[in-house]
Specification:
Blueprint lengths: L4 E4 L5 E6 L5 E5 L4 E5 L5 E6 L4 E6 L5 E5 L5 E4 L2 E4 L10 E5 L6 E5 L1 E2 L2 E2 L3 E6 L5 E5 L11 E6 L6 E8 L2 E6 L5 E6 L4 E9 L2 E2 L9 E5 L6 E8 L5 E7 L2 E5 L5 E5 L5 E7 L5 E6 L4 E6 L12
C-alpha cells in the first residue's frame, strides 16, 4: 500500500477537502454539520455550523466557499466505522450554501431549480467563467430513491439550469483540463461518465437518448463503488472508491489503476502544494484525513486560494 501520513482523526465523516496555501485543509464534516479547517499540524477549528449534511465544497470566484448540503443522513456506528444509513427524520432539504471564511456567515444560494427542489447536492466544481457545476445525488428511503442529475449555476444566485437528470446517483464531479468535458461518478454502478460540453452549462447532444459516454465501469467488481473525485493535470480522473477502497486513477480512454487506501469509506481526494503532487484523502468511516505524495501533478482548481 502507498505510504499515507495521518494528519488528523476524530472527524465526523469528513468530505469536500480544499487545499489552502498555508498547508491547511478546509473540509466538511457531514455528520457534525460543519465546515472545518484542519491545520498542517492536525489542529481542528470549526469555521461555520451549517447543519443538515454539508457534502462537497469548493472555493468560489469571490473568495467564499460554496457548499453542497445534502440535508442530512442517518448514521450507525459499527466495527469502528461511522456509516451513513438513509434519510433522517429531521431532513432539512438540499441546498447550495455560501460561507464567508472571515466571519463564518452562512448564506443559502439555491434550494431549487425551477419547480423542483434540490434533494441531496453532493459535489461541486467551478469553471473558468465562474459558474459552478454540482451534482444532486438525491435521497433514499427504505423502498424508493430519487433520480439524480447535475446542474450549472451562477455563484450570485441569479441563474441555475439542469444539465442532465435521470441517473441512479451522481456523486463526484470534475472538469477536464480544457473544460470541454464534465465528468460524473455514479456511485452504485461504479461508472465514470463523461459529458461533452458545447458551452458553460450546455451539454453537447449528438442524438440518442443519453448524452453521456461511459469512460470506465467497475461492472463485474461489485465491491467497488465511486464517490467524489479530482482531476489530474494529465487529464486522468482520480475517483475515491468505496468498499474495496482506494483512489482509482482513470485515463480518458478508460484505462485505470487503483491506489489502495485504509478505509472502506474513502470519499474524496484533493491536490495541492507547490508542485501539485501533495494529495489529501478523506477517509470518512474512521474520520481520518491522510496526506500522501501523488506520482503526477493534480490539476489546479479555478479560484483556488
Amino acid at each position: 500500500m502507498t505510504a499515507f501520513h495521518e494528519i488528523t482523526s476524530g472527524l465526523r465523516f469528513p468530505e469536500g477537502p480544499i487545499a489552502m496555501p498555508d498547508g491547511s485543509i478546509i473540509l466538511v464534516e457531514i455528520e457534525r454539520g460543519t465546515l472545518t479547517r484542519v491545520a498542517a499540524d492536525g489542529k481542528q477549528t470549526i469555521i461555520a455550523k451549517l447543519g443538515g449534511g454539508p457534502n462537497g465544497a469548493a472555493m468560489g470566484p469571490n473568495g467564499k466557499i460554496y457548499v453542497c448540503n445534502n440535508g442530512g443522513f442517518k448514521y450507525v456506528e459499527a466495527r469502528g466505522l461511522l456509516i451513513p444509513s438513509g434519510t433522517p427524520d429531521d431532513y432539512s432539504g438540499g441546498r447550495i450554501e455560501r460561507v464567508n471564511l472571515a466571519t463564518g456567515k452562512v448564506e443559502r444560494v439555491y434550494d431549487r431549480c425551477g419547480d423542483f427542489p434540490l434533494r441531496g447536492p453532493n459535489d461541486i466544481v467551478f469553471d473558468k467563467a465562474g459558474g459552478m457545476y454540482f451534482t444532486d445525488y438525491g435521497k433514499e428511503a427504505p423502498r424508493t430513491r430519487d433520480k439524480s442529475g447535475f446542474y450549472y449555476a451562477a455563484p450570485d444566485g441569479s441563474k441555475i439550469v439542469e444539465c442532465y437528470y435521470g441517473s441512479l446517483g451522481y456523486n463526484g464531479i470534475g472538469l477536464s483540463p480544457d473544460e470541454q468535458t464534465i465528468y460524473c461518478a455514479e456511485t452504485a454502478s461504479g461508472r465514470l461518465i463523461a459529458f461533452d460540453l458545447a458551452g458553460p452549462g450546455e451539454i453537447r447532444r449528438q442524438g440518442g437518448r443519453f448524452p453521456g459516454r461511459v469512460i470506465a465501469s467497475m461492472k463485474g467488481q461489485p465491491l467497488e463503488m465511486f464517490d467524489s473525485l479530482a482531476v489530474a493535470a494529465s487529464g486522468r480522473v482520480c475517483v475515491a472508491t468505496l468498499i474495496d477502497p482506494g483512489i482509482t486513477s482513470i485515463a480518458p480512454d478508460g484505462a485505470y489503476h487503483k491506489v489502495e487506501t485504509p478505509d472502506v469509506f474513502t470519499t474524496n481526494i484533493v491536490f495541492g502544494g507547490q508542485d501539485m503532487q501533495d494529495a489529501w484523502v478523506t477517509c470518512s468511516g474512521t474520520g481520518t484525513l491522510y496526506k500522501m505524495r501523488w506520482p503526477r501533478p493534480g490539476l489546479r482548481l479555478n479560484f483556488a486560494a
